[in-house]
Amino acid sequence: YPAELTRYLTDRHLLGYRGGRLLDLGAGRGEFLHGFAAQGFQALGVDRSRPARPRFPEVVVEADYEKSALPFEDAAFDVLFNKSVFEHVTDIGKVLGECRRVLAPSGRMISMVPDWRAQMHHFYDDWTHVRPFTLVGLTECIKSHGFQIRVAKRFRQLPWLWDRPFLNPLADAAALLPERLKTLKFVRFAKEWMLLVVADKA
């Protein structure tokens, strides 16, 4: 999935940035970092803690980006990617300010968070979730911190749908199946919508 997602995001939203410097905020074990590196980016990650056994060898800098400034110079990156990060952040203004600071003047940010509308019944099953988002809320939050919105949409994590939107009714039907069937990946990702916002540094 990380390889498919990074390919999709590059092809749809980052073709003009390929070859540039990319920061993966909340890089974790580095799966998406590795995917973007494979797409031709000079990829670097930052996370609050360094994983004990990182899956890939790309560099991940350890820094608590909510408590302190990101350890990078101003305008250091052409692209900033974050997935499943903002819902864990209490002081979102500070983090978005740092995202904007480290982006180049023409830089682009891609953000993905869980869709509160689809996941409200189990969003707080993850005790580290502190900030739910709707599409309007996420869009307005990012825009109010110095970004120009390019794309804002609900997004299913089902790669075979991305180039075949006519198959969405099949996923809609799967989303109606009982919760106990969420052990099946197809059903799980049909139910668990994400929000995807692509924004440029204003």
Instruction: State the major sheet.
Output: 7 strands, mixed
User: Which spans have pLDDT < 50 for at least 5 consecutive residues?
Assistant: none
Multimeric organization: single chain
Shape: globular
- How many DSSP H or I helices? 8
Which structural class is indicated by helix and strand composition?
A: alpha/beta
Radius of gyration: 17 Å
Which bin fits the share of residues in helices?
25-40%
Strand order of the largest sheet: 3-2-1-4-5-7-6
Question: How much is the average pLDDT?
Answer: 91
Taking the alpha carbons of the first and last residues, their distance comes to: 31 Å
Order of helices and strands: HEHEEEHEHHEHHHE
| SS elements, strand count | 7
Strand content: 15-25%
Q: What would your notes on this structure say?
A:
The protein is of the alpha/beta class and 202 residues long. It is built from eight helices and seven strands. Strands 3-2-1-4-5-7-6 form a seven-stranded mixed β-sheet, with helices on both faces. Helix 1 crosses helix 2 and helix 7 (168-175) packs across helix 8. The protein starts with a helix and ends with a strand. The mean pLDDT is 91.
Question: What order do the helices and strands come in, and which of them pair?
Answer:
Layout: H1 2-13, E1 21-25, H2 31-38, E2 42-47, E3 60-62, E4 77-83, H3 92-102, E5 103-114, H4 116-119, H5 135-143, E6 147-155, H6 159-162, H7 168-175, H8 185-191, E7 194-201
Helix pairs in contact: 1-2, 7-8
